[in-house]
Amino acid sequence: MTRLTDLGVTDLRDGIAKGDFSAREVAENFINATNEAEKLNAFITLTPDHALKQAEEADKARASGQLKALSGVPLGIKDLFCTNGYRTTAASKIIGNFVPPYESTITEKLFAAGAGMIGKLNLDQFAMGSSNETSAFGNVISPWRQKNDDAALTPGGSSGGSAAAVAAKIIPAATGTDTGGSIRQPASFTGITGLKPTYGRCSRFGVIAFASSLDQAGPMARSVKDCAALLEVMAGFDPKDSTSADVMVPNWEKLLSSDIRGKKIGIPKEYRVDGMAPEIESLWQRGIQMMKEAGAEIVDVTLPHTRHALAAYYIIAPAEASSNLARYDGVRYGERQTPEGSNLADMYSATRAAGFGDEVKRRIMIGTYVLSAGFYDAYYIKAQKIRALIARDFEAAFDKCDLLLTPATPTAAFALGQKQDDPIAMYLNDVFTVPASLAGLPAMTVPVGLNDQGLPLGLQLIGKPLDEQSVLNAGLALEERAGFTSQPEKWW
Questions:
Q1: Where does the Amidase domain start and stop, copy by copy (predicted)?
Q2: What is the Cα–Cα distance from 158 to 476, expressed in whole angstroms?
Q3: Active-site positions?
Q4: 194 has which bridge partners?
Q5: What is the pTM for the complete model shown?
Q6: E-state strands within 48-147
């Protein structure tokens, strides 16, 4: 018999609608699952009251024939989304007790569609990190283990709590945010599906900012279909967000089709990088073969400025972070620290020193440096020019193809602590995901197989601006042919 916690978003939605089970049963099962998974440290704050209240509303709605798009579906919310009346921390001490008096547009849409909130998910502090080791609330631990090895593994970052919770089946799906790969990389590390939509598809209102020209919310779930269903609710124009795209939201789930015959899939040669694990190259070739079997034509393309993407990203993103995080000074925002006999400057210094973690401080300092007089033109302006060239490379590639297929990560998940002392090695985790972020393109990760150590590996699909449908369709074709059903053995 299938357990309710084995079901994804659309199966739960449809089961509630048919009366196979009640929304309350669903909520209670997932609440119990989260309570039994404390060792993963996936959640910062649990909100069972919210999930049960929404379940009650869903059961009433079913009785009256007024079910909504996500009635009775419980979700995990990354603790970067402001939730009215519920603590929102960004995994940081400096706003560790912040309870927003307003709702982010994304969560407002999800809750209005009937979804419940199981809890707020752990993440890298202010979404800065690739391994979920920078949280002020402790590391998230992946539910996966290598063969014959009990070493704790990273779930990826920054949406590590979201990825770990979905992979462990303690929630059916979660919200994530992606600045340079923070949905796609953890999805690959944990064997789930994650979608970063086109920049502007989803409102950023109420999402605590890291890098405003890059941050984009998206769904993390167990299937391509579930991602499509969630994105339909999450997407849409928002007048409260000046970067929100005023375009129609398609019915992605209804239009979902794995028939990609005649589509041209581009293979960028620049994604074969030094240090890429042989298993990743092998996986990529398998993916190419799957696309051929699905009827797609494979074409070689070039993205010549890709090699500069990571360097440009780690100038632009810290620069924007430096600006965005300047508000947390203990005056209007942030937990104030006032050493005895201190003046205003001392208070600023003490507040930020105590409130921010090492990685956040590192990025603020990098950002402040590249924006300072004498270095602005040399670094920040040059990085923005590189960004424009990268976007132009993608435009030229899409003249020859409809989509790109690339690896999602250069390796499988690594052990916690393995790269913590080497920021450059950590930043290299984003080498395959950053280019699409700089260009603002839709991209998703689909799990395709396991490596020799039994850890999941994913591939990335990148599409044209606002063409999430083609990305989802190709993702479905890949998902069907990969037949990925592996899941971690429960140890928690």
A1: 25-472
A2: 25
A3: 78, 158, 182
A4: 220, 445
A5: 0.96
A6: 74-78, 116-121
